Amino acid sequence: MQEPKLAVPSRRLETPAGEVLIFSNAEQASAIAAARVAAIIRLLTSTNGKAVVGLPTGGTPVEFYKGLVAKHRAGELSFRDVTTYNLDEYYPISPCDPQSYRSYMHRHLFANLDIAPNHAHVLDGSVPEPFVAEHCRMYEHWIEADGGLDLQVLGIGRNGHIGFNEPSDVSSDEARATRTRLVSLHPVTRADAALDFGGEERNVPPHALTMGIGTILAARSIVVLAFGSNKAQALAGALSGSVSATLPASLLQTVGGRVTWFVDESAAADLK
Ligand code: GLP
After folding, report:
1. Distance of CA 161 from the midpoint of ligand 1 (Å)
2. What is the pLDDT of residue 7?
3. Beta strands 120-121 and 207-210: pairing type?
4. Is the CB of 88 under 6 A from ligand 1?
5. CA distances from 215 to 59, 65, 113, 210, 232 (A)
6. From the candidates 63, 140, 166, 265, which is the catalytic residue?
7. Where does residue 234 rank: exposed (0-12), middle (13-18), buried (19+ CB within 10 A)?
8. pLDDT confidence band for 1 (50 / 70 / 90)
9. Closest C-alpha residue for ligand 1 atom 3
Protein backbone atom coordinates (compact mmCIF):
# COMPACT_ATOMS: atom_id res chain seq x y z
CA MET A 1 0.00 0.00 0.00
CA GLN A 2 1.27 3.48 -0.87
CA GLU A 3 1.94 5.78 2.08
CA PRO A 4 -0.72 8.50 1.79
CA LYS A 5 0.54 11.94 0.80
CA LEU A 6 -1.49 13.56 3.56
CA ALA A 7 -0.13 12.01 6.74
CA VAL A 8 -2.40 13.98 9.04
CA PRO A 9 -6.14 13.76 9.62
CA SER A 10 -8.25 16.45 7.98
CA ARG A 11 -10.14 16.91 11.27
CA ARG A 12 -9.65 15.84 14.87
CA LEU A 13 -12.40 15.75 17.52
CA GLU A 14 -12.36 15.11 21.26
CA THR A 15 -15.49 13.16 22.20
CA PRO A 16 -16.71 11.27 25.28
CA ALA A 17 -15.76 8.04 23.48
CA GLY A 18 -12.21 9.18 22.74
CA GLU A 19 -10.13 11.04 20.19
CA VAL A 20 -11.54 10.89 16.65
CA LEU A 21 -9.20 11.27 13.67
CA ILE A 22 -11.12 12.00 10.48
CA PHE A 23 -9.44 11.32 7.12
CA SER A 24 -10.64 12.24 3.65
CA ASN A 25 -10.90 8.58 2.65
CA ALA A 26 -10.76 5.06 4.07
CA GLU A 27 -7.45 4.25 2.37
CA GLN A 28 -5.67 7.09 4.15
CA ALA A 29 -7.31 6.26 7.46
CA SER A 30 -6.30 2.59 7.08
CA ALA A 31 -2.70 3.44 6.23
CA ILE A 32 -2.32 5.77 9.21
CA ALA A 33 -4.06 3.30 11.54
CA ALA A 34 -1.68 0.56 10.35
CA ALA A 35 1.30 2.85 10.96
CA ARG A 36 -0.02 3.67 14.46
CA VAL A 37 -0.64 0.02 15.35
CA ALA A 38 2.76 -1.02 13.96
CA ALA A 39 4.40 1.64 16.16
CA ILE A 40 2.49 0.40 19.23
CA ILE A 41 3.54 -3.21 18.50
CA ARG A 42 7.19 -2.19 18.07
CA LEU A 43 7.10 -0.24 21.35
CA LEU A 44 5.42 -3.08 23.28
CA THR A 45 7.70 -5.81 21.93
CA SER A 46 10.83 -3.77 22.60
CA THR A 47 9.82 -2.75 26.13
CA ASN A 48 7.79 -5.78 27.36
CA GLY A 49 9.18 -8.46 25.04
CA LYS A 50 5.67 -9.15 23.71
CA ALA A 51 2.41 -7.61 22.53
CA VAL A 52 -1.09 -9.07 22.93
CA VAL A 53 -3.48 -7.72 20.31
CA GLY A 54 -7.21 -8.23 19.70
CA LEU A 55 -8.22 -8.23 16.02
CA PRO A 56 -11.40 -7.62 13.99
CA THR A 57 -12.73 -8.99 10.69
CA GLY A 58 -15.18 -7.61 8.11
CA GLY A 59 -14.66 -5.41 5.07
CA THR A 60 -13.39 -2.46 7.12
CA PRO A 61 -9.96 -3.78 8.20
CA VAL A 62 -8.88 -5.30 4.86
CA GLU A 63 -6.77 -2.25 3.84
CA PHE A 64 -5.48 -1.92 7.40
CA TYR A 65 -4.19 -5.52 7.23
CA LYS A 66 -2.60 -4.79 3.85
CA GLY A 67 -0.78 -1.92 5.57
CA LEU A 68 0.55 -4.20 8.32
CA VAL A 69 1.66 -6.83 5.79
CA ALA A 70 3.41 -4.15 3.69
CA LYS A 71 5.31 -3.00 6.77
CA HIS A 72 6.30 -6.58 7.54
CA ARG A 73 7.51 -7.11 3.96
CA ALA A 74 9.50 -3.88 4.16
CA GLY A 75 11.27 -5.27 7.24
CA GLU A 76 9.64 -2.65 9.51
CA LEU A 77 7.35 -4.91 11.55
CA SER A 78 7.60 -8.39 13.02
CA PHE A 79 4.85 -10.47 14.64
CA ARG A 80 7.39 -12.91 16.13
CA ASP A 81 6.61 -11.66 19.64
CA VAL A 82 2.95 -10.85 19.02
CA THR A 83 -0.01 -12.93 20.20
CA THR A 84 -3.40 -12.20 18.66
CA TYR A 85 -6.97 -12.93 19.73
CA ASN A 86 -9.78 -12.45 17.24
CA LEU A 87 -12.96 -10.85 18.43
CA ASP A 88 -15.43 -13.35 17.10
CA GLU A 89 -16.39 -16.24 14.84
CA TYR A 90 -19.61 -17.53 13.32
CA TYR A 91 -21.24 -20.58 14.95
CA PRO A 92 -21.49 -23.18 13.71
CA ILE A 93 -18.84 -22.95 10.99
CA SER A 94 -15.82 -24.99 10.00
CA PRO A 95 -12.52 -23.14 10.39
CA CYS A 96 -11.79 -24.34 6.82
CA ASP A 97 -14.95 -22.71 5.41
CA PRO A 98 -13.80 -19.78 3.23
CA GLN A 99 -16.37 -17.59 5.05
CA SER A 100 -15.06 -18.42 8.53
CA TYR A 101 -13.17 -15.68 10.30
CA ARG A 102 -10.29 -18.17 10.76
CA SER A 103 -10.03 -18.38 6.93
CA TYR A 104 -10.39 -14.60 6.61
CA MET A 105 -7.55 -14.01 9.08
CA HIS A 106 -5.34 -16.59 7.38
CA ARG A 107 -5.91 -14.93 3.99
CA HIS A 108 -5.57 -11.32 5.05
CA LEU A 109 -2.93 -11.50 7.77
CA PHE A 110 -1.59 -14.68 9.35
CA ALA A 111 -0.30 -16.33 6.14
CA ASN A 112 1.44 -13.10 5.14
CA LEU A 113 3.66 -12.44 8.12
CA ASP A 114 5.77 -14.17 10.76
CA ILE A 115 3.21 -14.92 13.48
CA ALA A 116 3.53 -18.37 15.13
CA PRO A 117 0.46 -20.58 14.52
CA ASN A 118 -0.01 -21.09 18.26
CA HIS A 119 0.01 -17.32 18.85
CA ALA A 120 -2.81 -16.55 16.37
CA HIS A 121 -6.07 -17.35 18.13
CA VAL A 122 -9.57 -17.38 16.67
CA LEU A 123 -12.60 -18.80 18.46
CA ASP A 124 -13.47 -22.22 17.01
CA GLY A 125 -16.88 -22.40 15.33
CA SER A 126 -16.66 -26.18 15.12
CA VAL A 127 -16.57 -26.92 18.87
CA PRO A 128 -19.40 -29.31 19.85
CA GLU A 129 -22.33 -27.43 21.39
CA PRO A 130 -22.01 -28.92 24.91
CA PHE A 131 -18.41 -27.63 25.06
CA VAL A 132 -18.98 -24.12 23.70
CA ALA A 133 -19.23 -22.48 27.13
CA GLU A 134 -16.01 -24.20 28.21
CA HIS A 135 -14.27 -23.14 24.97
CA CYS A 136 -15.33 -19.52 25.62
CA ARG A 137 -14.08 -19.71 29.21
CA MET A 138 -10.75 -21.08 27.99
CA TYR A 139 -10.44 -18.21 25.49
CA GLU A 140 -10.81 -15.71 28.35
CA HIS A 141 -8.33 -17.76 30.35
CA TRP A 142 -5.75 -17.70 27.54
CA ILE A 143 -6.08 -13.91 27.23
CA GLU A 144 -5.67 -13.51 30.99
CA ALA A 145 -2.69 -15.90 31.07
CA ASP A 146 -1.09 -13.77 28.33
CA GLY A 147 -1.42 -10.73 30.62
CA GLY A 148 -4.57 -9.27 29.02
CA LEU A 149 -5.00 -7.38 25.76
CA ASP A 150 -2.51 -4.55 25.26
CA LEU A 151 -4.47 -3.31 22.27
CA GLN A 152 -7.87 -4.12 20.79
CA VAL A 153 -8.57 -3.14 17.17
CA LEU A 154 -12.30 -2.91 16.43
CA GLY A 155 -14.77 -2.28 13.63
CA ILE A 156 -18.41 -1.44 14.24
CA GLY A 157 -21.56 -2.90 12.74
CA ARG A 158 -24.23 -0.79 11.05
CA ASN A 159 -26.40 -1.36 14.13
CA GLY A 160 -23.56 -0.31 16.45
CA HIS A 161 -22.44 -3.81 17.42
CA ILE A 162 -18.84 -4.45 18.46
CA GLY A 163 -17.50 -7.94 17.92
CA PHE A 164 -20.83 -9.76 17.71
CA ASN A 165 -22.24 -8.02 20.78
CA GLU A 166 -25.60 -7.06 19.33
CA PRO A 167 -27.97 -4.30 20.50
CA SER A 168 -29.76 -5.43 23.64
CA ASP A 169 -32.12 -4.01 26.26
CA VAL A 170 -30.03 -5.14 29.25
CA SER A 171 -28.58 -2.41 31.49
CA SER A 172 -25.26 -0.91 30.44
CA ASP A 173 -23.66 -2.42 33.58
CA GLU A 174 -24.85 -5.86 32.55
CA ALA A 175 -23.57 -5.33 29.02
CA ARG A 176 -20.20 -4.16 30.37
CA ALA A 177 -19.92 -7.36 32.39
CA THR A 178 -20.32 -9.67 29.37
CA ARG A 179 -17.47 -12.00 28.51
CA THR A 180 -16.75 -14.41 25.65
CA ARG A 181 -19.89 -16.41 24.88
CA LEU A 182 -22.34 -17.80 22.32
CA VAL A 183 -24.80 -15.21 20.94
CA SER A 184 -27.57 -15.06 18.33
CA LEU A 185 -27.05 -12.76 15.36
CA HIS A 186 -29.30 -9.73 14.85
CA PRO A 187 -31.34 -9.65 11.60
CA VAL A 188 -29.44 -6.51 10.46
CA THR A 189 -26.12 -8.33 10.96
CA ARG A 190 -27.35 -11.41 9.09
CA ALA A 191 -28.62 -9.21 6.24
CA ASP A 192 -25.24 -7.43 6.07
CA ALA A 193 -23.38 -10.78 6.11
CA ALA A 194 -25.61 -12.34 3.43
CA LEU A 195 -23.39 -11.08 0.57
CA ASP A 196 -20.54 -13.22 1.92
CA PHE A 197 -22.80 -16.28 2.00
CA GLY A 198 -23.98 -16.39 -1.63
CA GLY A 199 -26.40 -13.48 -1.15
CA GLU A 200 -28.74 -15.61 0.98
CA GLU A 201 -29.52 -14.53 4.54
CA ARG A 202 -30.63 -18.09 5.32
CA ASN A 203 -27.05 -19.30 4.62
CA VAL A 204 -25.62 -17.04 7.34
CA PRO A 205 -24.98 -19.03 10.53
CA PRO A 206 -27.61 -18.10 13.14
CA HIS A 207 -25.13 -17.76 15.99
CA ALA A 208 -21.65 -16.55 16.76
CA LEU A 209 -18.98 -16.78 19.43
CA THR A 210 -17.80 -13.35 20.53
CA MET A 211 -15.59 -11.69 23.08
CA GLY A 212 -17.87 -9.85 25.49
CA ILE A 213 -18.08 -6.09 25.83
CA GLY A 214 -16.29 -6.56 29.17
CA THR A 215 -13.46 -8.42 27.41
CA ILE A 216 -13.11 -5.63 24.84
CA LEU A 217 -13.28 -2.75 27.33
CA ALA A 218 -10.58 -4.37 29.49
CA ALA A 219 -7.99 -3.80 26.71
CA ARG A 220 -5.34 -1.26 27.74
CA SER A 221 -5.87 0.65 24.51
CA ILE A 222 -8.48 0.47 21.77
CA VAL A 223 -8.36 1.53 18.11
CA VAL A 224 -11.67 1.69 16.21
CA LEU A 225 -11.99 1.81 12.41
CA ALA A 226 -15.26 3.04 10.84
CA PHE A 227 -15.65 3.82 7.15
CA GLY A 228 -18.52 4.64 4.82
CA SER A 229 -21.85 6.40 5.05
CA ASN A 230 -23.65 3.28 6.32
CA LYS A 231 -21.72 3.67 9.59
CA ALA A 232 -22.49 7.40 10.05
CA GLN A 233 -25.53 7.00 12.29
CA ALA A 234 -23.97 4.33 14.53
CA LEU A 235 -20.77 6.39 14.77
CA ALA A 236 -22.54 9.58 15.84
CA GLY A 237 -24.52 7.67 18.49
CA ALA A 238 -21.45 5.82 19.74
CA LEU A 239 -19.34 8.95 20.10
CA SER A 240 -21.75 11.24 21.84
CA GLY A 241 -25.21 9.70 22.20
CA SER A 242 -26.40 8.19 25.46
CA VAL A 243 -24.45 5.24 26.85
CA SER A 244 -26.71 2.24 26.30
CA ALA A 245 -26.54 -1.46 25.43
CA THR A 246 -29.03 -0.69 22.64
CA LEU A 247 -25.99 0.78 20.83
CA PRO A 248 -23.11 -1.41 22.06
CA ALA A 249 -20.37 0.87 20.64
CA SER A 250 -21.63 3.69 22.93
CA LEU A 251 -20.20 1.70 25.86
CA LEU A 252 -16.77 2.74 24.60
CA GLN A 253 -17.60 6.10 26.23
CA THR A 254 -16.97 4.42 29.60
CA VAL A 255 -13.28 4.00 28.63
CA GLY A 256 -12.99 7.01 26.26
CA GLY A 257 -9.51 7.98 27.50
CA ARG A 258 -8.13 4.76 26.02
CA VAL A 259 -9.85 4.88 22.62
CA THR A 260 -8.74 6.35 19.27
CA TRP A 261 -11.08 6.33 16.28
CA PHE A 262 -9.82 6.31 12.67
CA VAL A 263 -12.76 7.26 10.45
CA ASP A 264 -13.37 8.64 6.97
CA GLU A 265 -15.41 11.71 6.04
CA SER A 266 -18.42 9.59 4.94
CA ALA A 267 -18.65 7.85 8.30
CA ALA A 268 -18.17 11.23 10.04
CA ALA A 269 -21.03 12.86 8.10
CA ASP A 270 -23.38 13.04 11.12
CA LEU A 271 -20.76 14.38 13.56
CA LYS A 272 -21.19 17.94 14.74
C1 GLP B 1 -19.05 -8.19 11.60
C2 GLP B 1 -17.96 -8.43 12.63
C3 GLP B 1 -17.62 -7.16 13.36
C4 GLP B 1 -17.37 -6.07 12.34
C5 GLP B 1 -18.65 -5.78 11.61
C6 GLP B 1 -18.55 -4.70 10.57
O7 GLP B 1 -20.31 -8.32 12.15
N8 GLP B 1 -18.31 -9.42 13.58
O9 GLP B 1 -16.49 -7.38 14.20
O10 GLP B 1 -16.89 -4.92 12.97
O11 GLP B 1 -19.06 -6.97 10.97
O12 GLP B 1 -18.27 -5.26 9.32
P13 GLP B 1 -17.79 -4.43 8.07
O14 GLP B 1 -16.41 -3.98 8.40
O15 GLP B 1 -17.78 -5.43 6.94
O16 GLP B 1 -18.74 -3.33 7.88
Report:
1. 8
2. 61
3. unpaired
4. yes
5. 23, 22, 26, 10, 25
6. 166
7. buried
8. very low
9. 163
pTM across the whole model? 0.96
| 33 sits in which H/E element | helix 26-48
- Side-by-side strand order, sheet with 181-184: 88-91, 207-210, 181-184
119: annotated active-site residue: no
CA gap 217, 214 in Å, rounded: 5
Residue 272 has pLDDT above 80, yes or no: no
Asked if omega into 95 is within 30° of 0 (cis), the reply is no
Ligand 1 neighbour 87 (Cβ under 6 A): yes
Mean pLDDT, rounded, for 157-162: 95
58 lines ligand 1 (CB under 6 A): yes
Give 49 Cα–ligand 1 centroid separation in angstroms.
31
Q: 42-57 as b/e, with b when 16 or more CB fall inside 10 Å? A: eebbeeeebbbbbbbb
Helix 62-73 crosses helix 26-48 at what angle (to 10 degrees)? 50
pLDDT, averaged across the chain: 96
**How many angstroms does the Cα of residue 88 sit away from the middle of ligand 1?**
10
Residue 259 to residue 247: CA distance in whole angstroms:
17
| Ligand 1 pocket, residue 167 CB under 6 Å | no
Q: Which helix or strand (DSSP H or E) is residue 208 part of? A: strand 207-210
